[in-house]
Amino acid sequence: MEAGDFKDFAKAMTDYIAEYLENIRDRPVVPSVKPGYLRPLVPEQAPEQAEPWTAVMADIERVVMSGVTHWHSPRFHAYFPTANSYPAIVADMLSGAIACIGFTWIASPACTELEVVMLDWLGQMLGLPECFLARSGGEAGGVIQGTASEATLVALLGAKSRTMQRVKEQHPEWTDTEILSKLVAYCNKQAHSSVERAGLLGGVKMRSLKPDNKHRLRGDILNEAIDEDIKKGLIPFYVVATLGTTSSCTFDALDEIGDVCAARDVWLHVDAAYAGSAFICPEYRYLMKGVEKADSFNFNPHKWMLVNFDCSAMWLKQPRWIVDAFNVDPLYLKHDQQGSAPDYRHWQIPLGRRFRALKLWFVLRLYGVENLQKHIRKHIALAHLFERLCTSDERFEIVEEVTMGLVCFRLKGSNDTNEELLRRINGRGKIHLVPSKIDDVYFLRLAICSRFSEDSDIHISWEEIKHSADEVLAQK
């Protein structure tokens, strides 16, 4: 494909994308296809001769869109949002054109330097303490990871490296294997499954602690668990505090947990994957009180801050522990400016990395902080609207306090009734929800996911839920 065809193809695709997103309400949220639907729609082998771009465009609806779940539909309420905006789409286009692999500073200086500055911009927007920012003049700074799962694992490996060094100094006679067998990490039982997975990948014990009656991990619960493990000869080294759990968006008591970790010399990592975006609004920062006590902090602009996947922002007070844990330095990756700027390959698990800071830069400039705050506040207001609709119907109950853009609700009655309710709702195909269960209570989650969502969309979703509830209760 030459430049002329590229321009025509790109213009046609831009028109298609805008048309798709602006009219996304008209599409069924979830496709009705079955596994294996796509293979019969395409040839058995790749074409020998080049096809015109118009042939590819003609196949998008038939092959791709027929099997797409439309995450940006205002009728999509499952999981948590995944962000999407025109500035981020255009930035990814430029990133694809530059196509650098920014593993070292010299591999593309702009790729590294824009990331350093954007993570400082973003940290200031959240109200993170200066001790996390590169502009503080120390070693601290931010990095864009692919996902919060990666950030949790990276922090765990840094904590492991730090603790191994400390214990070796105290007990030079202990082998690495002996020390590793004693390491233990902690999280809320309601923490994301990726935290448990980080323990498995890191080869350490990960204890999931039972939270309080509001599903928050508290300082006294953590303290008690650490005391138990020290008596068993174990070495506590890492704690994950979750701000906005996946099941119900509850917030661990970060301030209390921070005090325990500081007293015990345990690495504290904050996972604020979804809810962290809300901290750009000053009125929600009380939920991250104590963040200055953390060693690392992570949230996903690609969830709720209009930056397309993947863009998971992570800050480290002492990145040297990560760098030391990952430092493999072959001659072909060395350069004259080493030490003057971060080589981000040492801050992550993969070697290669895309120019992801571009989409952060585009979104922050083309929206501005004020409009991003409006976006967050609007989603939270829509969640409270749905909460009011629920509480106005005596058949329903709210399971968790609504603080962000998620409402956890259920029909009063048995788990079976609510499982049937979800089957009915999703079976009708007008809206899409997923369930969760805490302490054997099954409930439905309604997340505000689309940047196109309006009050009218919430009323439509509520009518769908009520209609399904009428059918379920009529059967009883």
TrEMBL record:
A Gene Ontology biological process term: carboxylic acid metabolic process
Keyword set, alphabetical order: Catecholamine biosynthesis, Decarboxylase, Lyase, Pyridoxal phosphate
UniProt-listed SUPFAM superfamilies: PLP-dependent transferases (SSF53383)
Family annotation (InterPro entries): Aromatic_deC, PyrdxlP-dep_de-COase, PyrdxlP-dep_Trfase, PyrdxlP-dep_Trfase_major, PyrdxlP-dep_Trfase_small, Pyridoxal-P_BS
GO cellular component terms given for this protein: cytoplasm
A matching Pfam family: Pyridoxal_deC
Co-factor(s): pyridoxal 5'-phosphate
GO molecular function, one term: aromatic-L-amino-acid decarboxylase activity
EC number: 4.1.1.28
Self-association and partners: Homodimer.
Similarity field: Belongs to the group II decarboxylase family.
Name under which the protein is recorded: Aromatic-L-amino-acid decarboxylase
Species assigned in the record: Papilio polytes
